[in-house]
Amino acid sequence: MKKTTLTSPGKSYLYLPECVLILILLTLKSFFFNQYIKLGDFAPVMTAATAAIFTLIFLLKKLISKKSPANLLFPLYIIASLFMMIDRMYFAYFNKLPGILALQMVEYLGAVSSSVIDIFNLGHAMYIIDLPILALYMLFWRKKAAFALRTTKFRNTKRNPAKFSLGAASGLLAGCLLFIGCHALNENFHFSYLKNELFTYHITDVITVISKQMAQNNLDPADYIQVIAPTDTEGEESAPKDPLNGIAQGMNLVNIQVEAMQAFVLNRTYNGQEITPFLNSLLASDTIFFDNYYYQIGGGNTSDAEFAVNNSLFTPESEAAYVKYTTNDYYGLPFILKDNGYSGAYAFHGYNGDFWNRKEAYVYQGFDYYYAKEDLAQEDILGLGISDKSFFTQALNIMETYEEPFYTFMVTLSSHHPYDLPESLWQLELEPVHQNTLYGDYLQTMRYVDEALRLFFDGLKEKGLYDNTAVTIYGDHFGLPNYDWYSKYYMTEWIGHEYYEADMYNVPLIVHIPGLGEAKTISTTGGHIDYLPTILYLFGYENTKGVMFGQNLITATSGITYEQTHMARGSFISDDVIFVYPQNGIMVNAVAYDKKTGEIIPATGYEEISAAAIKAYEDCNALLEKNAVVLIKFTKIDGTRRDFISSSGVEFCEKI
Ligand code: GP9
Ligand code: MN
Known about the structure:
By secondary structure, the protein is α/β, with parallel strands linked by helices. 41% of the residues lie in helices and 12% in strands. It is built from 21 helices and 22 strands. The structure holds (2R)-2,3-dihydroxypropyl phosphate and manganese (II) ion.
């Protein structure tokens, strides 16, 4: 019989205290992790599943190779710890676990590092806090500890260490399986819960992505074409023309996407102070306010809101449309307006031009020029980039040189998470308890944005542009997540009802048309993808070339928005109901709310709508995948300049 040497601990021996310690740490971390990702009562069983998989890998290694699996145990634990920390951080912001596709968006996280740092807290640190000590132990101290360990009674048996660890691991595996089995008897437990276990989740995610990419689709884009028909058809008897149809025809369009602006800030006071006094005054005249409007984004956050709004298309779930489908053919608002005689489409944003791949993507979106941070004077920097006040002032100076009518698309920045507005700019008097909280900082920032917008409108008037310019203002996504405990608490206290999904997803859409002559509120449910058909109706232009997934909210008698990202795909918001499809995919965890009362109602009977919601996203993404959202083909006239000519012969993008 081969004599075992006791000199090298890593190779021949796996010491019992080491195994026990690793397992205890893994179990603890896994339990807290499962609690955090809202597995609730099933956190212990999911923890047992993680321990079972961990042990199984250990056993398989032991069976395959004669070497001790101790070498595998430590790295596996380190990997599991890192995964738990990253997953938890992602969950804190997106309310779901990250998929492999989200990895492609990692480069955009660095740029918003203040947000990442702000999210990082002790809860996340606990997953990695022991790793440096463990690494030191592995590299330097294990050899020394070996002597002590092998002389204690904790050392696995001297005679046959292989058998000992095999037996211990098998016993543990059996125990875990028994525990899972006992839970299976619980009528609320379903085996598909196990899909949310750490290892299983990431492995099935990779398999799903690969299989989806391999799947073929046979969609015909023509099935999705929606034409906003002109109402004054010649020679036909028709209903009297709706005065709103074409009311803004020939006017300039300034479309302002406001970072993280939610609807609750409008027409609301904090201790008697208005958060958005200017916007509130705007709502009072010449304005259509869509108060049931909801964001629809994917892995591209801000940039996806832009994409959905300008194109009336759904974005991918985990990647940014501007990154994944950069060079596709599009026929969104910039193209349509230019086909209707607009002199150009111009985009403005106060952050680095290539962030979210905008610099490249905007060309294909139909913008003739993009003014990014590097193209503007950087004299007033706030947070990530140029302050909204400086941004608006500079944009106005450029805008006044354009031949009218023009389309200007502006993406603001100062209200980016974590809302670190310098104290000198605070205008609200906050109660001490709200100071330096995400909630308080958000309100201060929104107050600043409102002031910047006032400045912009003053500028439009000064430059003589106001009367001939329709201005639309909307929010790109939430500012305060309802899954952040403090934000939820303060918001609930402030708005007087539980701060829930309907509040969090609700962003305003304000359409200000000088000369409109009325202040109107439209409460039909809509979302980002409904912007384009609605605007085309107000401007009286048609889109006969591009697929649109949204609807015109002015004439629609009912509305619905399909959601993804912070609520899982399959969720929707209708005029009456909010249906939250569970992020963990277990239908019994679905929640439905009565939209009028905010009360929870039975989440049954919505399967069909929920399936339609998933299908709409999948159909749109499949069309994008096939580069088939446009029914005409653009012709490249110069590959290097990436210019296009439309079917009508109008040259686009010559300035880029
Ligand atoms: C920067 C800004 C990022 O360009 O658009 O916003 P985010 O997507 O992080 O909300
Ligand atoms: Mn944003």
